[in-house]
Amino acid sequence: MAKQAFSLLALMAILMFTRPLKASEISLQHHGVILQYHHVSTETPASTSVSPAQFAEHMQYLAEHHNVISLQDMLYKLARHQALPDKAVAITFDDGYANILHNAHPILQQHGFNYTVFINPALIGKESQQLSWEQVRQMKTDGVWFANHSNHHQHLLTRGDMTKDQWLASLREEILSAESKLQEELGYSLKYLAYPFGEYNSDLQALVKELGFIGLGQQSGAVAPYSDMTALPRFPAAGTYANLNTLKVKLNSLAMPSLYAPLDPELRPDNLQPQWTTKIDTSDIRPAQLACYFKGDKLDVIWEMEDVFALSLPAPLGPGRARVNCTAPSKQDRSRYYWLSQPFFVPTNDGLWLD
């Protein structure tokens, strides 16, 4: 029965690509937020870590002010255009570190919160900081879900000397071999893929859609029925983003109803300072209140029409990951902000990707 339900979920997710909803057709309760964590520890890299005390503070706030639901329930309802519980939040972890079990799991169990861990099957049993399969199965009995983070946690955009077809074939094998191992060890296949390092491009998105998967990134933003199910945003909640005061605003955010396809986030060497236009549904947004930011600095927003605005980066991007975030308050609830994030990924001159 569970396997059939997950197959239906994948089917509904695919169907929604051809049946998009307009922002004016949904209510604020059709929006949800997905949180992303890595380490819950004081002994791991600060940029991807939240302390157990901070994590407990986050979870207590969620318990008091939000409705935590499973990622599966959130994505199922979004795909079927169903309303979510008020201020719904799903909790995810990337990389499957053992400190999730030791430090986060007891806190989550205390609150009765469901959560999903994206793991790399090929690394289990080979890297000591990873959960073991025995621990994964133990957590499964406690209601934890596990999903695909690729098999080896490599930069999926790395091509080397491969042709495009060879590269896509290698990605297909990387994704499907991990999913097969999850099915073998856990008895189910969610067909969710969290992109390692949050990196993806339009070709990878097309492959994810072809395989019937749902893709999750690391760019900021909320989710709604009109969200792109091959690149769902998640709010990182560790490192510099662990501050609860700033996280509160993000937890109340709404998915910006963008009507133009976003830029391909992988930038070519001849286009490291992109300019682009975005069209949004302004039925619940006042254009004059929209603001866009890059590395904390406000960008000039040029309105070309009442619902189309242009942006450009102030300087060419170097290797690494970057993003532009745009926000605007809701007319219905001025305490809540629509949020749109455009990520950018740039390799080194040698075609390598920075961790």
TrEMBL record:
Keywords: Signal. It comes from the Bacteria. The keyword Signal applies. Gene3D superfamilies: Glycoside hydrolase/deacetylase. Residues 87-355 form the NodB homology domain. It is found in: Secreted. Its main location: secreted. It holds the Pfam family Polysacc_deac_1. InterPro entries: Glyco_hydro/deAcase_b/a-brl, NODB_dom, Polysacch_Deacetylase. Residues 1-23 form the signal peptide. PANTHER family: POLY-BETA-1,6-N-ACETYL-D-GLUCOSAMINE N-DEACETYLASE, PTHR34216. This is Polysaccharide deacetylase family protein. It comes from Bowmanella denitrificans.
